[in-house]
């Protein structure tokens, strides 16, 4: 179920297993399981940790599709990912959405 998948993605991300978190999220997506906001946060943090900016951009698109663009934790993780990867204009856009 989605809770178990989300717990695993978040757990991997929080324990320095960022590549495993991204890979598991990809499998979750392929299986058609809808993530929670917290799963999105975990996978964005993982993308940030391992400089997977293209994957992070895909998660950003998915975040918008899910309607999470106004969710504080998700957008904060998005801003963090863009800022850490040097995409400051994109980070600023996310920050401005929080205003």
Automatic annotation (TrEMBL):
One of its GO terms (molecular function) is RNA binding. GO terms for biological process: RNA modification. Gene3D superfamilies: Tetratricopeptide repeat domain (1.25.40.10). PPR repeats lie at residues 1-35. Coiled coil: none annotated. Keywords: Repeat. Pfam families: PPR (PF01535), PPR_2 (PF13041). It comes from the Eukaryota. InterPro entries: PPR_At4g14850-like_plant (IPR046960), PPR_rpt (IPR002885), TPR-like_helical_dom_sf (IPR011990). Signal peptide: none annotated. NCBIfam families: PPR. This is Pentatricopeptide repeat-containing protein. It comes from Noccaea caerulescens (Alpine penny-cress). The lineage of its organism: Eukaryota, Viridiplantae, Streptophyta, Embryophyta, Tracheophyta.
